[in-house]
TrEMBL record:
It is found in: Cell membrane. This is ABC transporter permease. Keywords: Membrane, Transmembrane, Transmembrane helix. PANTHER family: PERMEASE COMPONENT OF TUNGSTATE ABC TRANSPORTER (PTHR43632). It is a multi-pass membrane protein.
C-alpha cells in the first residue's frame, strides 16, 4: 500500500515540477493526434457531407462501409500501415516506419471513418430541413454542402472532438508503426504500457493523469459545444 502511495506522490511531483521527459511525451502525443485529426477532418468532413446530400450509384455501399469501419481494429490498421511502410512494402522508399509520420498515418486511418459516418448523419439530418429550400432556389450542390457544413459547425465540432478522443487514447496501432522509441515515437499510451511493465508506476501514473485530464477536457468541451448548438438552434 505504501508503494502505491509513494507512486502517486511521485506522479504528482512530476506533474507539478513540469518534468522534461513527461512534457516531451505529452507534446509528441498532442502533435501526432492533432495532425491526424486535421488530415481526417480535411478528408472526412467533405466526404461525409457528400454522402448525406448527393445521390449516386454506390452511395449506400459507401455509407455502410464508413459505418462498419468505425469499429476498425487498431492492430489491423497498425499491421496494414506497417506492411505498406516497411522496406519490403510499396511505400518503403519513403522511410516513414518508426517515425511520428507513420503514427499520424495510422491514427488518420482509424478516425477518418468515424468522422465520415458522424458527419454524414449530422448533415443528413440538417439537409432534411433545407432540401426543399435548396431545390426551390436551384442552389448548386457544392454551395449547398458548404452552407450545411457551416450551419452544422457546432455539431461538427463534437464530431471532431470525438475523433480526437479516439486517436489520443490509441495504443495498438501506434505501437506497431511507431515502435515506442524514446525521444522519437514514445507517446502517452505507449509510455504508460512500457513504464507499467517496467514497474515505474510514478511516470505511468503521471501520464495517466494527463491523459485523463485531456479526456475530461474533451468531454467538457463536447458538453459545452452541444449546449451552444442547442442554444443556436432555439435562437
Amino acid at each position: 500500500m505504501q508503494d502505491f502511495a509513494d507512486s502517486f506522490s511521485l506522479a504528482g511531483h512530476l506533474l507539478i515540477s513540469g518534468d522534461a521527459a513527461l512534457a516531451e511525451i505529452v507534446l509528441l502525443s498532442l502533435r501526432v493526434t492533432v495532425s491526424a485529426l486535421i488530415i481526417s477532418a480535411l478528408i472526412g468532413l467533405p466526404i461525409g457531407a457528400l454522402l448525406a446530400v448527393a445521390r449516386f450509384p454506390g452511395r449506400s455501399v459507401l455509407t455502410v462501409l464508413a459505418n462498419s469501419l468505425m469499429g476498425l481494429p487498431p492492430v489491423v490498421v497498425g499491421l496494414t500501415v506497417y506492411m505498406l511502410l516497411s522496406n519490403a512494402g510499396p511505400l518503403g522508399v519513403l522511410q516513414l516506419l518508426y517515425t511520428p509520420s507513420a503514427m499520424i498515418i495510422a491514427q488518420s486511418i482509424l478516425i477518418t471513418p468515424i468522422i465520415i459516418a458522424l458527419t454524414r448523419q449530422v448533415i443528413a439530418d440538417l439537409n432534411a430541413e433545407y432540401a426543399e429550400t435548396f431545390a426551390s432556389l436551384v442552389v448548386p450542390r457544392h454551395v449547398a454542402i458548404a452552407a450545411l457544413l457551416w450551419d452544422a459547425r457546432y455539431s461538427l465540432m463534437t464530431v471532431l472532438l470525438a475523433g480526437f478522443g479516439r486517436a489520443i487514447a490509441e495504443v495498438g496501432a501506434v505501437m506497431i508503426v511507431g515502435g515506442n522509441i524514446n525521444h522519437v515515437t514514445r507517446v502517452m499510451t505507449t509510455a504508460i504500457a512500457l513504464e507499467t511493465s517496467r514497474g515505474d508506476l510514478a511516470l505511468a501514473l503521471a501520464l495517466g493523469m494527463v491523459l485523463l485530464l485531456i479526456a475530461l477536457g474533451v468531454n467538457g468541451a463536447l458538453s459545452v459545444l452541444k449546449t451552444a448548438d442547442r442554444s443556436m438552434a432555439h435562437a
